[in-house]
Design a protein that fits this description.
By secondary structure, the chain is of the alpha+beta class. The protein is 43% helix and 32% strand. It contains 1 helix and 4 strands. A hairpin with a 5-residue loop joins strand 3 and strand 4.
Length: 91
């Protein structure tokens, strides 16, 4: 009975560690996109949100951000390098 309990705890720990590593990787990647967009575009006063578009296994990543420029909110697109590929006024 003890061996079964130890195996169950180990499996749970492995799943938890995997889940945590995926969350940390995603957070780090989105933070890098946020930093790149602010560095490349000084007219952006604030980044409200960052979202990733795409699926696992795609060879490219596209991101959408809600940013504030001169008091107006825009939805912009980028490939993560900080260069804006699309811009749309949302407010």
């Amino acid at each position: 009975m003890k061996k079964v309990m130890i195996i169950c705890i180990c499996v749970a720990f492995i799943f938890f560690a995997g889940y945590l590593s995926i969350k940390l990787y995603t957070y780090n990647k989105l933070s890098n996109v946020r930093e790149n967009i602010i560095k490349e575009n000084p007219q952006i006063s604030e980044v409200k949100s960052v979202n990733s578009i795409g699926q696992w296994g795609e060879w490219f990543s596209e991101y959408t951000l809600v940013v504030e420029i001169d008091g107006k909110k825009y939805r912009i697109s980028t490939m993560g390098d900080g260069k804006i590929t699309g811009k749309e006024l949302i407010e």
